[in-house]
Amino acid sequence: MTLTYWSWFKDLQKVCDIFNEKQDRIRVEATWISGEDYAKILSAVAAGGGPDIGHVDMRSVPEFALAGALVDLTRYGFAEQEDQFAPSAISQVNIENSFWAVPQDYGPVATFYNREVLEDELGLTPPATWEEFHETAGAVSETGKSLISLDPGDGFMPIAWVMQAGAVWFRPESDGWIVNMTDDASIRVAEFWDQILAEKIIGTGYGAFTTPWYAAAGEGKVLAAIGGSWSDALIKTVPDGHGKWAVAPMPVWQDGRGYASAVQGSSSGVILSNSQHPLEALEFLTWMSTDPESIDAMIEYSGIGWSTAKDYIGKARQQPSEFFSGQNYNEEVMVPMAEGQNLEWTWAPLMQRVSTIIGDGMTAAVNGEIPLTDMFANAQTEIVEIMREIGLDAEEAR
Hints:
The chain has 398 residues and is α+β, with helices and mostly antiparallel strands. The chain has 2 domains: 2-106 and 264-330, 3-Layer(aba) Sandwich (D-Maltodextrin-Binding Protein, domain 2), CATH 3.40.190; 108-261 and 344-396, Periplasmic binding protein-like II (D-Maltodextrin-Binding Protein, domain 2, 3-Layer(aba) Sandwich). The protein has helices at residues 12-22, 38-46, 61-66, 87-90, 115-121, 130-142, 156-165, 184-199, 211-218, 231-235, 278-290, 292-302, 329-339, 351-366, 372-389, and strands spanning 2-7, 27-32, 53-56, 94-95, 98-99, 102-114, 170-173, 176-179, 224-228, 245-249, 263-271, 306-307, 393-396. The chain starts with a strand and ends with a strand.
C-alpha cells in the first residue's frame, strides 16, 4: 500500500525512504507544497480527494478539525502513544481529550543575542527577566543601538508573550468556547509593552530576519532576537556573525508568575478524512516524530525545528556550536525552554484571523493610536463575534 503525504519539509522523501526500507507493507511518497497552502489541502478534501497525510502547523489543527477534514486519532489508539512525545508538544494537538494530529516540530522561544557587542562592548548581559529587559533595552537605546526590533504587524509575537505569562485565551467548554484576553496575565503583558512602546527604546520598523534586520544585525546595531528555536539557523546567516552570538533563555517575570518560555511556530502531521489507510498513516507519523533515526534525518535533510519526541533532541544538537560562541545551547538552554511551557494553552479554530487582528492592533499601538490594554479588550469582542458568525458557541469571559 502507498500513502501520500503533502508537506513543506524539504527533501522529506529521504526521510520517508528510511521508513520504506525498514518494512515492505507501507510505502510513503512525499509531495512538496508551499508552506501553509491550506486552501489546496482543504479543497482537495472537500472534492473527495487529497493525500492521506497533510502538513499543518499545530495552531491550525482546530480549524481543520472544525472543517471535518481530519481523522480523530484517538479512535486509532494514539492516546497510548502520548508518553512518547514532549508534553509541551502533544498538548497543542489535544482538544477536549481528542488528538487530531501528530506533533512533528515546534519552536520553544529563547533569546538569541550578539554576545560580542552586548557583553564585551557594552558590558551588559542578556536580560533574565522582563524587568531587566526594560532596563537593558533602555541602556542599549542610549548607545544608538536597539536590543530588538519588532515587526509591528506580527500578531503571533504578542501571543507568545501572553502564552508565557500564563494566559489561556481560548478554553473549550462543553460545546462552546470561553474567550478571555483580558485576564491578569494578558493585561500585565499589555501594560508592560505599552510602556516599552511609549518610551521608544526598541526598534519597531521591521522584524527579525528581514533584509533590514540582517543589515542592522551585521553592523551590530540590532543586538538580539527573541524567537523560536528555529531562529538559530537564521541567525547563522547574519553577516560576520560566526563566534559572536550566543543563546539565553526567554526573559521571565521576576515574581515567578508565568512560565519559562512559549512557542513560536510549529508543525504536525494530520491524517485527512478521505484517507483509506488511517492506521498505517498513524504508524508512519508516530515513527517519523519519535524514532531517533528519523529525527536525525529530518534535522539533516529538512532542517526541522525542535524535536517533539519526549527524550531525543537529535544527535546534531547534543554538542557545542562554534557559531554560538562554543556554547552547547540546545542542551543548556533549549531543553529547559521546551520543558517550561504553558500546557493549558489551547489554539482556537481561527488562529490566522486572530493573528491578523492582533497584528493590526500592534501596528495601531506602535503608531500611538490605541494602548494594548484596550486593543486586547476590543480584539476579544471582535473574535467572539467572528466565532459566532462561523457557527461556534462562544462567550467572553466574565
